[in-house]
Amino acid sequence: MQISVLSGKGGTGKTTIATNLAVIMGGYYVDCDVEEPNGFIFLKPNISKSKDVSIPTPQIDYTKCTLCKKCVQVCQFNALGIAGNQVVVFEKLCHGCGACLLACPDGAISEKERAIGKIDAGQSGELKCLQGVLNVGEPMAGPIIRDLKEMVKEESSLIDCSPGSSCNVVKAISGAHYAILVTEPTAFGLHDLKIAVELVRKLKLPFGLIINRGNDDNRMIIDYCEKEKIRLLGVIPFDRRVAEIYSRGNLLIEDEHYREIFEELAENIREVVRCS
Amino acid sequence: MQLIIISGKGGTGKTTVAASFAYLEDKSIKVDCDVEASNLHLVLKGDDIERHDFFGAKTAKIDPEKCQKCGECEKACRFNAISDFQVDELKCEGCGACTVVCPYQAVSLDDDLTGETLISKTGKGYLSRAEMVIGAEGSGKLVTEVRKIAGQYKKNNEPFILDGSPGVGCAVMASVTGCDAALIVVEPTQSGLEDFLRLLSLIRFFGVLPFVCINKYDLNFDVTCQIERVCREEKVPVMGYIPFDSTVQRAINELKPVVCYPKSKAGRQIIMIWNRLNERIKEEIKK
Amino acid sequence: MKVCVSSSGKEKSSNVDFRFGRCSYFAIYDSENAEFKALENAGIASAQGAGIAAAQQVVDEKVDAVITGNMGPNAMNLLKAAGIKIFGAAGGTVEGAIKLFQENKLESIEKPAPAHSGMGNQKRGW
């Protein structure tokens, strides 16, 4: 059972919700925001294992290469160039698709693995934690997200997605059983929430909503939910204390009041996931 | 002059600052580089006077007339994007491996609509922005296009004010490259500090002059001090401190830049940051 | 001797484009027969690696030197591998740049400008 947590924009408190909920609900916490994984700051797991994630990149066997240029022409990512009597491989642009290998008529291309990031695994109390980390300057987050999701395929897990609505979010939520959208009650929040809603509907995923930093303006989100028939899972009220606990890198559930709120939220989620 | 307002992650008050600057410098050309969830137009309003489809990626397409269902394409695809002789557009990377192996030339790469670019004429000058197709690839390329179109509206020496994309990924690189100065909006949180350092190295890599302002600095004085220390070590000038102020949220919900509330604590500080920043950039350019 | 200038237009009087990978045209002048032609930059259409696609086009034209403003690390690697020399122009027209080149008044570019999205060169430390 995979539950994905996402938000149309960053900074709505997606990681706050995901980490606190994960501790209460147990199983796995999986940080798929591989460009900027932050969840471990709050969960503070002891990292017991790390492994590299790599993708294949071409290497040229010059005893066979006839400089025919077919590999350069087929590569959609401009990761290959031909100059003088050598084929230059630009590894950082390579998506590891293997098209060059297929296109080479002389069997001159083989592949070697190249690390683009890593996956850390650890334990925070009872909770098992995974995070993907993409090396800075690498363009391909996909393979790390794919490996992370593969590791928790059969497990109960809470997936913390990257913000926005890009292809990386799609990769992180596809295959999940339920999605939790997080928003805040501002005009920006509502605008970006609509984008997230469109995304989960496109993927035909059942979903519910959590309002973070709730206050007197909740109405604008609640009205939208009623109109769109979106289930409101709960509201995390705004309190300056929350911002202070967060800024120190601590979990909200260390506070008794918030622990109760999250326990109720978890109960709601278990309920709707069972029914959907 | 191109000034980009940027933050390592979303929700740190980047658009609040950018919208205020855009309002204060009404001759400027505004560029919203957050193509996944643009917000600047909500505050600056205005009418869309130009829109264009943008084809920023390629997707494989199988011609059912030619397809003999041999399955070679499915075997060749490393992204599991083909099953039952259908292409899953959300999984397809547009690499073309399938087109190489198809013995019947039934697979081709087609241009894929990845977004729409828009120019709005606001009460405070032109705004260039985009709306990305949900789940699309190539947000960086769309950012480049948004900046290119903005450039066409430059008549004299108007400055450009860019609302950067969040994160440190490809779209951010596309928004930072070629800028003169960057104002990094940092929040004093543990994660904020880490994201700030990653972003700073990226900005330096592109040879852009970095400045910092600390938003909600009074939420955690310890981390604020840490950020100040890092800035001193890294020789990044701190241009100012925005206090935690409920007027900011009120301004967002009334869809106005917070500097329209000149008596608010946050509004006042942002005006001061803007003035200081302008002086500093002028000095640096003279050098 | 064949020299290529990154250009904003198709004419000799067009201005030099300071960008290499994303320039509009490549103006190519062959001093052997005084032939001049302008090619559209094929790199512009690339989703990524525009510099490399542009460099490949220039390599295929078998030029001896390139005159431009900034060049990213990837494009530079490919041109260097092909033994093509790279020179920096301060501005002005294509014709002016070619003239300065023939008078040996242009400085060669040895260091790449920051990459846009390729990020192929990580020497400056992350």
Polypeptide structure, described:
The complex is a heterotrimer of chains A (276), B (287) and C (126). Chain A folds into 2 domains: 211 residues, 3-Layer(aba) Sandwich (Rossmann fold); 46 residues, 2-Layer Sandwich (Alpha-Beta Plaits). With 276 residues, chain A is α/β, with parallel strands linked by helices. Helix content of chain A is 36%, strand content 29%. Chain A contains 10 helices and 11 strands. In chain A, helix 1 packs across helix 10 and helix 5 runs parallel beside helix 6. The mean pLDDT of chain A is 92. In chain A, strand 6 and strand 7 form a beta hairpin. By secondary structure, chain B is an alpha/beta fold. Chain B folds into 2 domains: 208 residues, P-loop containing nucleotide triphosphate hydrolases (Rossmann fold); 58 residues, Alpha-Beta Plaits. Helix content of chain B is 37%, strand content 26%. In chain B, the strands form 2 sheets. In chain B, strands 3-6-7-2-8-1-9-10-11 form a 9-stranded mixed beta sheet, sandwiched between helices. In chain B, strand 9, helix 7 and strand 10 form a beta-alpha-beta unit. In chain B, helix 5 runs parallel beside helix 6. Chain B is elongated and about 70 Å long. In chain C, helix 1 runs parallel beside helix 2. Chain C has a single domain, classed as Nucleotidyltransferase, domain 5, CATH 3.30.420.130. The termini of chain C are far apart. A 6-stranded mixed beta sheet of chain C has the order 3-2-1-4-5-6, with helices on both faces. Chain C is of the alpha/beta class and 126 residues long. Chain C is globular, with a radius of gyration of 13 Å. Chains in contact: A-B, A-C, B-C. Chains A and B meet through helix 4, helix 6, helix 7 and helix 9 of A and helix 4, helix 7 and helix 9 of B.
Top-tier CATH class of chain C: Alpha Beta
Strand order in space, largest sheet of chain C: 3-2-1-4-5-6
Taken together, the total number of domains of chain B comes to 2
Q: Which value, in Å, is the CA radius of gyration of chain C?
A: 13 Å
- Please work out how many helical segments of chain C DSSP would assign: 3
Strand order in the sheet with the most strands of chain B: 3-6-7-2-8-1-9-10-11
Greatest interface: A-B, 54 and 56 residues
SSE string of chain C, helices as H and strands as E: EEEHEHEHE
User: What proportion strand of chain B?
Assistant: 25-35%
Q: State the CATH superfamily name of the largest domain in chain B.
A: P-loop containing nucleotide triphosphate hydrolases
Rg for CA atoms of chain B: 22 Å
Summed up, the domain count of chain C is 1
Structural class of chain C: alpha/beta
CATH-defined architecture of the largest domain in chain B: 3-Layer(aba) Sandwich
Question: How much beta of chain C, percentage-wise?
Answer: 15-25%
What's the average pLDDT of chain C?
85
Query: What is the count of DSSP helices of chain B, taking H or I runs of 4+ residues?
Result: 10
Instruction: Report, as a whole number of angstroms, the end-to-end distance of chain B.
Output: 15 Å
